[in-house]
Write a structure and sequence with these properties.
2 domains
């Protein structure tokens, strides 16, 4: 009984410490003017998210979080930042434009969706999966089954969106000729 309470207290301490680091890193990521520093704080936030998955006893998703997000996607983001040379854009004064207003609207809409997801309870296709069923089925098998059955359309939409982002970065880089040093 005592060892169980110590384990629970330790998990809470790890969760609270990781949550505070994740919140602090995400605030710093949004407020940094240097895009490389912002990308580094985003990596720290991704790593904190991986710790959350470990605490939820889902090591496969935690490792995928580290490999895919903190590894591959952040390398892509840093590569695009370095390719586009955003230092010129940092020197221009901040102006309120239509794109920023649309961005604020999308952020508020996303926050509203997250609020309904957290307080509305699980009502989606994965609502019937209890921790017992997950432990019987296995985490990797469950993720694969859900990804390629219930969530196939969002998975494909995200892949098309990432492809469009890569093509857009290449088009933007081709518009400006590189100076020879």
């Amino acid at each position: 009984m005592f060892a169980e309470n110590i384990s629970l207290v330790f998990e809470w301490l790890v969760f609270l410490g990781t949550a505070s680091v994740a919140i602090f890193a995400s605030i710093l990521m949004v407020t940094r003017k240097n895009p490389i520093h912002a990308a580094l704080f985003l990596i720290l936030t991704f790593l904190c998210t991986a710790v959350f998955f470990f605490l939820l006893q889902s090591p496969f998703i935690a490792i995928v979080q580290i490999l895919v997000y903190a590894g591959a996607i952040m390398m892509l983001i840093v590569f695009v930042i370095m390719l586009l040379d955003v230092e010129e854009e940092l020197l221009t004064p901040l102006k309120l434009s239509l794109s920023k207003a649309v961005g604020v609207f999308v952020v508020l809409l996303t926050m509203l969706g997250l609020w309904f997801a957290v307080w509305g309870g699980a009502r989606g296709p994965s609502a019937g999966y209890t921790p017992e069923k997950i432990s019987q089925m296995g985490s990797v098998r469950l993720v694969g089954k859900l990804l390629f059955t219930d969530y196939l359309l969002p998975f494909e939409i995200i892949s098309i969106l990432l492809m469009a982002a890569i093509v857009g970065a290449i088009v933007l880089a081709k518009q400006r000729p590189f100076e020879k040093e």
